[in-house]
Amino acid sequence: VFPSLAQAQASVANEVYQELGHPSVFLFCPTEYCSSLCSPSPSQSCYLQTIGQELLPGIGVIWTGPKVVSQELSAVLLEEVEGVLRRRPVIWDNLYANDYDCRRVFLGPYMGRAPGLMARLHGLLLNPNCELQANFIPIHTLGTWFRSELGGCAHPDLAGMEVVTALGDSQGAQDGSYNPQEALELALRDWVAEINHQALEPGR
What we know:
alpha/beta; O-GlcNAcase_cat; OGA GlcNAcase; Glycosyl_Hydrolase_84; beta-N-acetylglucosaminidase activity; GH
């Protein structure tokens, strides 16, 4: 029925999106969801070019970066992806994912993401460790990074004032710069306080 996989996927996704009444959040994960899966490159991929042309503009497209697990994300790469997809991508960040090797747990700060990255994103999903309690530092430092991004650049899709007001009372990264080591120390301090608080609860 369809001349290509990309056209088939886009057609089905568009129909579901329309049937659901154009929801505000509707995400599509392409078969080529990182640079290493694209042939020969994101901007020259016939598959991604078709997805960008055929997929309705209200549908968000998920992207993991240069690799499935990307140690670094640059604004230059995201600009290339935005160009071929005709929309800013939603980053599916596997930095902390350990489902492929459960012997490892990732407890470092959120890092390797270039300053000013939010202006190139439609959203960001963090894929965490499988162990729930191990994600305090990843999520806490992601929050610190997010606050620094809010302070460092204007983002056209953020309803800004409410977000900034809600986060303004938190400490760290208020000057628009993000320091992973400082973010880690802040997270550790808050995590110890949380652990101590839980230890004092009745029945603990």
